Amino acid sequence: MSRIVVIGGGAGGLELATKLGRTLGRKQRAHVTLVDRKASHLWKPLLHEVATGFLDEGVDGLSYRAHAKNYCFDFQMGSLKDIDRDRKVIILDDFYDDDGDLLVASREIEYDILVLAIGSISNDFNTPGVRENCIFLDSPEQALRFRTEMNNEFLKLHSRRGEGTVGIAIVGAGATGVELSAELHNALEQLQTYGFGDLDSSKLNVNLIEAGERILPALPPRISGSAHSELLKLGVNVRTSTMVTKAEEDGLTTKDGEKIHAHIMVWAAGIKAPDFIKNIAGLETNRINQIVVKDTLQTTVDDNIFVIGDLAQCTQADGQIVPPRAQAAHQMASRTFANIISILNGRELKSYKYKDHGSLVSLSRFSTVGSLMGSLTRGSMMVEGRIARVVYVSLYRMHQIAIYGAFKTGLMMLVGRINRVLKPKLKLH
Known about the structure:
α1 packs parallel to α9 (326-345) and α11 packs across α12. Residues 374-379 have low confidence and may be disordered. Helix content is 34%, strand content 24%. Strands 5-2-1-11-23 form a 5-stranded parallel sheet. It starts with a strand and ends in a 7-residue tail after the last helix. The protein has helices at 11-25, 47-52, 57-60, 64-70, 130-133, 140-159, 175-192, 221-234, 326-345, 374-377, 386-404, 406-422, and strands at 2-7, 30-36, 40-41, 62-63, 74-77, 80-84, 89-92, 95-96, 102-104, 107-110, 113-116, 121-122, 135-136, 166-171, 204-209, 237-239, 244-248, 251-254, 259-261, 264-267, 271-272, 291-292, 305-307, 312-313, 358-363, 367-372, 382-384.
């Protein structure tokens, strides 16, 4: 029986492990193992909603262990330490709890096929003070930290009877920074209905800081311009062509020497693969620690190892590098699944071809903008408003269908509608 190990339970890794377990594990054609250092999964593009309280991570989170039981694969909690390609084993590091107590000692897991789907982390570009003073919105724990600090600042402002403002600085005007900026204003409006009537948008000072010439630089200019206009209407201070050179406890310093004061600072200016990945097991990596892969998503030095998602540097036939997006991780998981089946059946592997279905950015309940079917229309089909919002939500539903199936996803949608009546719109604890 083949041993297939998937490391990383993000969007791509979890979808792949689920497919493998459902098809191979259930029929005992392979033993499938998913490894992750967390106990639960939450779709990363939703972290800004967790941060502002519009999403309950306890309700929308998925337990890896329970999911593994339902879909016939094994789950191992742990952190990757090294890969021994000669012996075909992965080495997991000692695993400790928050108090420093050893939970599970270092151990080895054998594999025949290994899939690395560890994902990415925020890249601070070695900017002084960022790691010590900024929140990186790349995990549920960081999102919860932001929500706690935000609620505390609003509570302090309320105790002063609304005297003063709450300053929040967000560095990086990609999708995460833009969506968080809009969601903050929605959160403040909701707080007014829960006993904070003395707080309004004038009490919130949000600075969205981008080193480039425009926000959402990965999207077409007219979509970027539309989002920029919507943010200005909300009262967000959009500062383009502004480079941050230092972060301190009370704010950020720009290249021009200006000090941007803030109570809370979020760094969302770029991504990289974790530092320990650099040259792990002799695999080829790039300057941001991504592992270079062939068109089949196998590494350039070992055909038994696949890499998917943000961790992979995959260059297409036209020379373009696949962008680190959720839709890319989903597509890579599907292609890797098909290629693993081909390996087991002795068939030829096929190349992965990225299909750009467009990009959407949610400005909370105020608006949604983006382009659809980017690879067919070159981004020219611009959508916004209600239609764009429906499509934006459908992206998450597609992810849920991939891991739960259509029937369970339908039930979850029904429960969600019921919870809108039973629960407050904003998570206040």
